[in-house]
Amino acid sequence: MPTTSDVVAIQRARLTSVGLGTLRAPGDDDGDTVAGVVARLGAVQSQELHSSAWGVAQRLATPATLEQVQGALADGSILRTHVLRPTWHYVVPDDLAPLMTATAPRVRKAMASTERSYGFDHSVLARRQGVVADALADGPLTRKEIGVAIAEAEGAPLDAWHLGQLMMHAELDLIVASGPMRGKQATYRLLPEQKAWDEDTARVHLARAYVRGHGPCRAEDVAWWGTLTKTAARAAVADAGLTRHEVAGLDLWADGDLPEPAPAGTARLLSVYDEFFCHDFKSWPSLTRDGMPSRWLYTGLVAVDGLIAGGWSRVLKAQTVEITVELTDEPTAAVWAALEAEAARYGAFCGLEPTLMRGAVGKGTIG
């Protein structure tokens, strides 16, 4: 059984691979841009737009602004689509087809029961996807606007559920992905024709991408992240040219040598559903001493040396952002200074003056 010091050592190595250790400065490598961060991680869970943008921005030594992340979405250097488990994720265009090829078959199976209960008609799917593609040929549209195009083509509107399911299939079939934000409304864009991948090769690509951006990790973590069977994940990891390490009794995989550990005392204010904690927690050593309130999961976790040290929330105002942290332990002066530095970086991301205080985490700005 790994000791606490073993777990800290593993988590500090994972902080480095997931881009939260020593941060990437301009000129370091391809990872010093918004798209580079997403590419390094393989995909970034992003159903909460504001928080997930921070999760990307904070991995740069000078954090990107919210507008810069939205700009990368607008120009297509990153895309937002339903892939992997599936929920919204950011991906770069080169990773979209293999990740979707690896995961879409099991996603479709998972959707089948609900589709039967709602009477979803697959026989008209191709025709409706053609209407969607024609509508998007002139540029991005909101879901509501696509619904209008479907209603005009068929003489009757689709209800919200059937329209949403149509667009989900259009994403799974690599016809559409996210377009630029239009105010607070998301849009869809038409994708160019994608390279064909066979499923085995795509699963190997997925395994390599996950381990590169999240290791050291287990094959079970690859299975969880990519909605793969454990058998398929183990096979993909074995074929991906990765390196197996036995650490404190755990079989872990990395992209070569184990990453250099993040500096001791590294403290981060993590985004909601941050990729650092996107793995299968079953049989993984505990990352908290006494458990934690579930509400922290939905506002954001505070991580110190890769362990869960608290939760945080933020309230955006006209000129300021009020950041509240709720910690499991009394912070040392060094940890508090690190959290103050994180708060300053979050303020730069928002373009607001930050204040940092301790207290119970309550309702804050998430999406």
How would you sum up this structure in a few lines?
By secondary structure, the protein is an alpha+beta fold. The protein contains twelve helices and twelve strands. It folds into two domains: 1-184 and 192-266, no CATH class; 267-358, no CATH class.
Task: Walk me through the structure.
The protein is built from twelve helices and twelve strands. It is α+β, with helices and mostly antiparallel strands and 367 residues long. It has two domains: 1-184 and 192-266, no CATH class; 267-358, no CATH class. The strands form four sheets. Strands 8-9-10-11-12 form a five-stranded mixed sheet. A three-stranded antiparallel sheet has the order 1-3-2, with helices on both faces. The protein has a two-stranded antiparallel sheet with strand order 4-5. Helix 6 crosses helix 7 (143-154) and helix 9 packs across helix 11 (230-238). The longest helix has 26 residues, at 93-118. The chain is globular, with a radius of gyration of 21 Å.
